[in-house]
Design a protein that fits this description.
single chain, alpha+beta, Recoverin, domain 1, 7-stranded mixed sheet, 30% helix, disordered C terminus
Length: 649
């Protein structure tokens, strides 16, 4: 193949485009020509781009991080349309030049989020299960290529509509269920859960900024000290990477050798074949009894270990590489070093490859908190149950901080609620699923977890420092657990579907913490991102969704919360009783926008919601009476809703 050059810049030829399209047609059986995102990245690397260049170019073409893309649209973007015109050079697509606060110009990666439609009018309705609901499919098949760190989008026909997994009807809007990773129409979702998924906070559209006006306003109101800064690229040393003196270790990982399986084609065919799993014996010892759960990355299997005569949880990981498996084993070993009895986290026993990668963990007999809440919407309206999740969750985070591990994915379905098995015992809580975990930035010599990796964990629980691509500590999990507590209490969620980009999430949390001026200036100043095309300029800094290509007349839609404060979760503030005020004080402390001022997990355990004292409670109530939220109003001593708990001192 030959590469065409224009003005000295290399461009891919249309001849190459035809050859690549022909190759895709042989690989992609989907009627809409949808290919996995990873295939596009691999193709770009094969065409000569570096991995970073490939990801940046892919983000420009695919700003909403969709898991599957129409390959013809992608080829048009890269090579140019067949009916004339070549694509811009990759240098033009990968970077753009922006003025910094000092008046200089720097090359900054293009923004990776395009505008999506934002639903308005969401009302506070709880998710509840209908007794007469239709049966949802139990076959939890997964896409083995889904390894994106942001929740995936399921694309459909060219007109934008998609098919409901249950009824098959084409709909313009579907809701992705995290329990089985399928998308359902509003009718099927409501029939199953009793109501449609609702945002924690309603988001509304604000001002629409033309690009030229936005650039001009930012230039006139620059934030002193802000400017693009590359992240650290330092090797891990023994001193920086292992302050807990865990030490290096070689972990044995068995690999199944099939004498009839050699070559990537044979492996792919075998990998994509329908395997029942139930009844199979894996690694010559784990007999699968039941499929108990599925996620974007894994499938959980209940298995009997014939060597130890115990039941274990075997997790099948989709297309896991040896590098990612090493990460899982390293995190598991760190957690084991601080939690020998596996009181707060499952124990990782074994790992092996049988075409796909598998890990073996201790079995946890319980339900995740999302299922508990959906089975009984009143369960976490009881503040005693909510307090138990908070207390044991933050106790787990204390151990994680000691191990130097950041979960990055603390959503309700990764928090297990375990009922007591013997009289006199209390329910317990365990944190699970560390597939997105990273190390505390202090252990990584200041490296930033997000810039080169594109992020990790569920976007709905991203703390502000994660959104702004700042180095993270375990305080990011302090934030994530607080958001999960709010979701469990009211039955709504920050993330309800594919249209909920990071901007929608950020607008909601700004409303929850009553940040009427948007993000703090000091926090924006520290961000290495190009904040001038992500947030509105002075005097308020709210998130914006981009429509179009920056530098070519793009428009930016400002997003704001429709309500302010925790009233949308706890009811009208002037009617709050004592327990609601104490809980609000607890959550707002954990959701301090500036992570440097946010309490640690250990400090959260000392707050009144978990460790009440008369003096502290009285101080909180007095501050609340004198605040702008409630002025000279009597605080009720009993709840206005169904029998809430009260704090015992």
């Amino acid at each position: 193949m030959h590469v065409v050059k224009t003005n000295g810049r290399p461009l891919f030829s249309l001849e190459m485009r035809s050859a690549v399209e022909e190759a895709f047609q042989k690989q992609i059986p989907n009627e809409h020509g949808l290919a996995a995102r990873e295939k596009f990245a691999e193709m770009l690397e094969a065409l000569g781009l570096t991995k970073d260049e490939a990801m940046l170019l892919l983000n420009e073409c695919d700003p909403s991080w969709q898991n599957r893309l129409p390959y013809r649209d992608f080829l048009d973007f890269i090579f140019g349309k067949k009916n004339g015109g070549l694509a811009e050079s990759r240098e033009d697509k990968i970077s753009a030049t922006y003025p910094t606060s000092d008046g200089e110009t720097v090359d900054t990666p293009a923004r990776d989020n395009e505008a999506q439609e934002v639903r308005t009018g969401d009302s506070p309705e709880n998710l509840q299960e209908s007794a007469a609901s239709p049966e949802k499919p139990q076959d939890c098949t997964e896409d083995s290529s889904d390894r994106a760190s942001i929740p995936s989008t399921i694309l459909g026909p060219p007109d934008g509509s998609r098919r409901c997994h249950n009824c098959g009807a084409l709909q313009a809007e579907l809701f992705d269920d995290p329990q089985d990773n399928y998308a359902y129409c509003a009718t099927c979702w409501t029939a199953w859960y009793g109501s449609q998924p609702r945002h924690l906070v309603t988001v509304v559209k604000g001002k629409l900024w033309p690009e030229d006006q936005l650039r001009k306003t930012w230039f006139e109101n620059r934030i002193p000290g802000w400017g693009y800064r590359p992240y650290a690229q330092k090797a891990v040393t023994a001193a920086a990477g292992d302050p807990t003196n865990i030490g290096e270790q070689f972990f044995p990982v068995k690999v199944k050798l099939n004498p009839g399986l050699v070559g990537s084609h044979a492996r792919n065919c075998t990998q994509n074949s329908e395997k029942k799993l139930v009844g199979e014996k894996l690694c010559n010892r784990y007999r699968v009894e039941e499929i108990v759960g599925a996620g974007h990355f894994t499938r959980a299997l209940l298995a009997y270990d014939e060597e130890t005569d115990t039941r274990v949880c075997v997790k099948k990981h989709n297309s896991i590489t040896i590098e990612l498996l090493t990460d899982l084993l390293t995190v598991g070993r760190r957690l084991k070093s601080v939690d020998q009895e596996s009181k707060f986290f499952p124990q990782l026993f074994d790992a092996f490859y049988d075409i796909d990668g598998y890990t073996v963990e201790s079995l946890i007999s319980g339900k995740n908190c999302l299922l508990v809440m959906r089975d009984n919407p009143e369960h976490f309206k009881n503040f005693d149950n909510l307090r138990r999740v908070a207390k044991q969750g933050y106790q787990g985070l204390v151990y994680m901080a000691e191990a130097g591990v950041v979960h990055c994915d603390l959503k309700p379905d990764n928090i297990m609620w375990i009922e007591p098995t013997e009289p006199g015992q209390e329910p317990s809580v365990i944190l699970v699923d560390f597939g997105c975990s990273r190390l505390d930035c202090r252990l990584e010599d200041g490296r930033n977890w997000a810039l080169s990796e594109g992020g990790a964990g569920h976007v709905g629980k991203w703390a502000p420092e994660m959104i702004l691509r700042l180095p993270i500590t375990h305080k990011a999990d302090v934030w994530g657990l607080a958001v999960a507590l709010l979701e469990l209490h009211c039955g709504r969620a920050t993330w309800t579907g594919e249209s909920d980009t990071v901007e929608v999430i950020l607008a909601q949390v700004l409303g929850l913490v009553n940040a009427r001026s948007g993000l703090p200036v000091d926090l924006l100043r520290r961000s290495p991102l190009d904040i001038q095309q992500l947030y509105t300029p002075f005097p308020t800094y709210f998130p914006m969704q981009r429509m179009g290509i920056y530098g070519q007349g793009a428009k930016f839609q400002e997003l704001r919360p429709a309500t302010w404060g925790l009233g949308c979760v706890l009811g009208e503030e002037d009617k709050w009783d004592e327990i609601r005020i104490i809980f609000a004080d607890f959550v707002l402390a954990a959701m301090n926008l500036d992570h440097e001022k946010r309490p640690s997990a250990a400090e959260m355990l000392k707050r009144a919601f978990i460790s009440p004292t008369s003096a502290v409670i009285e101080k909180i109530l007095e501050d609340w009476r004198n605040s702008e939220r409630i002025v000279e109003k009597e605080i009720p001593t009993t709840a206005t809703e169904a029998k809430p708990s009260t704090i015992e001192v």
